[in-house]
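Input.
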Amino acid sequence: MSDKRPWGGRFIDKTDQKVAQFTSSIDFDSRLYRYDIKGSIAHCRMLAKQSIISDDEAAQIIEGLQEIEKEIESGEFEFDRDLEDIHMNIESRLIERIGNVAQKLHTARSRNDQVALDIRMYLRDEISNILNSLHNLKKVLVRLARQNIDVILPGYTHFQHAQVILLAHYFMAYYEMLKRDSARLEDGLKRINASPLGSAALAGTTYPIDMEYTARLLDFPAVIGNSLDGVSDRDFIIEFLASASICMVHLSRLSEEMICWSSQEFGFIEIPDAFATGSSIMPQKKNPDVFELIRGKTGRVFGNLIALLTVMKSLPLAYNRDMQEDKEPLFDTVDTLRNCLDVLNILLPRLKVKREVMDRAARSGYMNATDMADYLVRKGMTFRDAHRCVGKAVSYAIEQGRELHELSLEELNGFSELFTEDVFEYLTPEQMVNRRLSKGGTARTNVIRAIEAAENDLGIEEL
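Output.
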């Protein structure tokens, strides 16, 4: 039986089966098959163009690779762990199909630049898919903002009632976060979108290759400028994992709030039955499992980032086998982020907003205290004095079991003679919201402008 290993000429003893299993990556890198075949076809065309192989040889190799791709997609292809990875599985099958001419395909390249190329092409496509999901989720948030433009609820700091805001303003805050997430991913594509093919093992190659031609065939606008760098760094994956982690932070924060808001203590929203689960012991339970899982999976994505940073932190140049550990964190993060985005895209539009509950909450908790202080400032009092004055009024109202706006004018005058009858209109939630006209503030006119700008950016037609 012939030795399947590409390095078999150097070794006498067969690889121990436990070692073969331990070093194999085919169980997870098989998903790169399309990119491996696409890269190999481009490399083959370049070899023929440069007369390194003949046109007839190139035609045989390309046809064989295309047939192998069909085999894999139909499920007929049998992956072999002894062949370690997707590259050797495809090459071995190509040799079976077309004979020794297949062995010319690996001329002027190494598995080192081959895998770097495959990952870049894979990640380029997956980021495009993620950006599409983010685009859709931004649309969802903007539509929710438009639909809830007149809903007022408490805004929080330190998880305590702070000031009233529009629910639309809340949704648009997450729109801004996801907008930055998209920008980070788009910017990362600039550094992913360079071809390393031709770097070979680490030093380049002695063959007269045309790396720019291969790059054009594979839609790369640039070629890696240093062969050592081309095969030995995974910073482009790390950058993606970091961007994905930040995005997951935003999804997790949103999920945390939806979990709180759906509880009996808040009651701000209701999650549809189709997106909740029950308890095996408590019949009354309706659990926000989807949001909880997003919150939990965020830690998983963080872990993937830390794992690859740890793998790369002390590796000498160029390629080391440690770098085989780059793929599972990458694949898992891609899958996790896409799944979280996709489920939010179908869940968020189906949330039931309980505006009456939000409105009641917006009229409690002394959230008009800052506005009362501002009222006094408008009447000539310094802000620090106004702050102390209203603080005393809040303490009094708490003792009385009433809100500030429920105190009589006579009671308010006990704290300052500057209070007049117009203070009560000044303290309504609607007035408090609409006075916040500073750029980015929660005033209705501001939020409508922000929604319109987002609708224009996203190509959303007016509802």
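The longest strand covers residues 160-166.
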